[in-house]
What we know:
Layout: H1 8-11, H2 24-27, H3 32-38, E1 45-48, H4 55-66, E2 70-74, H5 80-90, E3 96-101, H6 108-120, E4 123-129, H7 133-136, H8 139-142, E5 146-149, H9 155-168, E6 176-179, H10 183-189, H11 193-207, E7 210-213, H12 215-224, H13 236-248, H14 252-264, H15 269-284, H16 290-305, H17 310-323, H18 329-344, H19 359-363, H20 402-415
Helix pairs in contact: 5-6, 9-11, 10-11, 10-12, 11-12, 13-14, 13-15, 14-17, 15-16, 15-17, 16-17
Amino acid sequence: MTNSQIPLAERLRPATLNTLAGQLHLTGKGSILRTAIENGKVPSMILWGPPGVGKTTIANIIAQTLQVPFYTLSAISSGVKDVREVIEIAKTQQNAILFIDEIHRFNKGQQDALLGAVEKGTIILIGATTENPSFEVNSALLSRCQVYVLKPLDEAALIALLNHAIETDEVLRTKKIELKETAALIKISGGDARKLLNLLELVTETLGEQMSITDEIVMQIAQQRIAIYDKGGEQHYDIISAFIKSIRGSDPNGAVYWLARMIEGGEDVKFIARRLLILASEDIGNANPNALLLANATFEAVNKIGYPESRIILSQCVTYLASSAKSNASYTAINEALAAVQQQGDLPVPLHIRNAPTQLMKKLNYGKDYTYSHNYENNFAPQEYLPDQLSGTAFYKPGNNPREQELQKHLKTLWKEKYGY
């Protein structure tokens, strides 16, 4: 294969950290990851971020910089046997790196097969994932890895990448390319560098030798060849956004349509179920506590069953959540409480609700005058539970729906005017 036949994104894949687009928080001078690479002591790690932001590239750069054996497996097509084969080879080598793309697709058994080798240092594991590793990587393996979060590339980085491609690529630099507008290229790419370069290559191939790239031209070409960019659900982020907003907006019809689009596109069933779990708490919360129970049951059920039958379970959950009363009061409460923590710092715990396991602490009045609620009528006795500086602050403000109005009425009965309920 000649260089011109190699895709543009591959031709331009950075070989050093200095040429990597974005991710300066990880790869800039003095950053944690760069320092580890420069010291030649790279830990096993999980690279977590959206598609096309440099996860595979960073793994390659590490291997090239350290000049160590480098093995690549895809969690989609590899199993325990493949993992063990690499581990056996690595036992005869030093500092071998095993890169596993989409490690979130490995099941518990496959992840467990990595544990011993990672713990003993037989391999340096680099896993790449687009999903939150807290949910998708088992805790034993996760505890043996550093987690590095990669960010979507911003507009400046994407424009710089376009100009770099036009000016330095051995194929593109021979063409008279005028980059008049970039908005369409950036919008369609969605912060994905690989997708951006693939689209740029498609546009330049379509236009010929002399070209002026405008937003209108890019949109025309992209619409004609959208299937190239839609493998496995190119509109992943737009569709999940429409899906979530339809449920939040109490439209079961819109919600089930976007669910069908994701199912037809082969979307990971766990991804859909996880988003429903989050939504059940964020957008429904105490307006209907059963929503979280059903979403959790759905998550468990679809993981056991898979497609195609899980479409029925997902549809039941989606239509229920969309039809439910809504409240973001719990979501707002924790955000406001976190903001207070960040603004006020580590405020002292009031003495009367501190723990007092030792005599010294008791002498210092830890726990003194604490009122045990269950000793009083209705299992309640008024006392202060917040630091003095935050006394009377209502973080939780019940939503305007029947269930939370009952909660508000109860809280007002208990606290009178203290929190404004």
